[in-house]
Amino acid sequence: MPQISEALGRIQPSATLAMTGRVNELKAQGIDIIGLSAGEPDFDTPDFVKEAAIKAIRDGETNYTTVDGTAALKDAIAEKFARDNDLNYTPSQISVNSGGKHTLFNALVATIDAGDEVIIPAPYWVSYPDMVNFAGGTPIIVQAGADQNYKITPQQLTAAITPKTKWLILNSPSNPTGAAYSREELKALGDALLPHQHVMIMTDDMYEHIWYADTQFTTIAQVCPDLFDRTLTVNGCSKAYAMTGWRIGYAGGPEWLIGAMRKLQSQSTSNPSSISQAAALAALTGPQDFLTERNAAFLSRRDLVVSMLNDTPGLNCPTPEGAFYVYPDASELIGKTTPKGETIQSDQDLIGYFLDEAQVAVVHGAAFGLSPAFRVSYATSEEILQEACTRIQRACSALR
Length: 400
Hints:
Mean pLDDT: 96
CATH class of the largest domain: Alpha Beta
Low-confidence stretches: none
Number of helices: 14
Radius of gyration: 21 Å
Shape: globular
Number of domains: 2
Number of strands: 12
Distance between the termini: 50 Å
CATH superfamily of the largest domain: Type I PLP-dependent aspartate aminotransferase-like (Major domain)
Strand order of the largest sheet: 2-8-7-6-5-3-4
CATH topology of the largest domain: Aspartate Aminotransferase, domain 2
CATH architecture of the largest domain: 3-Layer(aba) Sandwich
């Protein structure tokens, strides 16, 4: 009888994608579902990016490219890192991949052996532990709750490091919480990492440009130059440029690591779409002023959602510094009873209740490694968010 591989058996389907699929099913049935589960901007890809892609098609840029990115795109990425992050990479230190998820997957699979440990702060993006498990490594989860604004401390990091530690994955601003590390907080984490020469750092900066703090965004290799040769700085076009479907992620890192990722990619996907690469080149080198306008819209939405959820019985919603998510703590709702007499025993029960009774789809905190909580994506209009939060308020008020 055919069987799946041991490696595939170590992972689970993405909880966020599963909920998004469920939302689409319910909508197809004509049910009035408000979906707040997808991590996708509701803005359209900028017109100048679309035009660059159309031009690439008309100009016949439809052939294979270099495995990990065209020379022009690598140059543009190196320029972006220098312009925005004060990081100096050569093209041989740049990898271009089919989305940020692909970038992370390549790096982990190319470096992890059985028994290697990867430190992952929780709440975490759902795919981090599964990628580590697939590669044969061991995720070491370090929890940081709402009481510490969902950010780990240097003391927690130091306590988690062992001789087997291969990587620390650091996501700021965070998916799912929107929490972001300040320059001072990154410096403190960097100082804790310095003595441990065997530990690499993978920074997922995908939400860099969706940033609300008064201070400027910084990344750890920028703040701690002594860690530059041990850091893979990951980014992409999906969130800031509303290009989720175009599938372009990229990274800057040590040449040996970029070469290993290239080798793996040569035997898996080969190059990212040539048309998407042309679009990404335009995105990174074209006008950036629209980012400020979109950020203002996200900020207004954040404030609306945080206010309404904090006015909801049983919820505590910290105010995030970036991204387009909130992660309300739902501890006070566990153990309560629904109008149908069912007990809310977990955050998975809670989101099921929201889906069935309030017709609002969110993602349960267990999927992100910290319960009881849930993730709300506010990448939609204020009108829809107002209605969704009103429905959640009613549902929570009905619990006894």
